[in-house]
Amino acid sequence: MKLTKLAASAFAIASIVLSAGIASAQTVGTNGNYIGAGIAVGATSGGQGNDESQIGGNIQGRYAVPKTPVSLRGSVLYGGDAAAIMPIVTYDAAIAKNTNVYFGGGYSFVTDEGQKTPLGNQNAPVVTLGIESEVSKNVIAYGDTKWGIDAYRNSDADAVSFQAGLGYRF
To answer: Is the pLDDT of residue 17 over 70?
Structure first.
């Protein structure tokens, strides 16, 4: 059942992102690499003790693979009693001048499994959908949603976290 929901959600989101890329063939997004920091807000609970939603921070980075619409991203969500460290690969689509939407997936590694983070309390696959925009010279504003699949210990609940921040483009 979870696999069916995941496949349907991924298909729907991919359709939107790919459509945005086709519709914006003449717009130029941002292809800059950056590192940033901001807030992370966990929106879910696994229904067990010590796994309620968390508010914390995030550190995120992006490396745009040259001449491709692909980026390698890293994200750390901290708050609670542990941190979730995520390597993520995304497909990036330009939607306006200096602005991209991105969709991708990766894996969340919790530094101390069983302890709370903004994205659950155990290692889990992650899907992300976000937007980034260069708002001034070398300053990137970003925001995204991360969905941790089966991200709570002793529960089959999924985790959702919202991030926003500012980055330095290099």
So the answer is: no
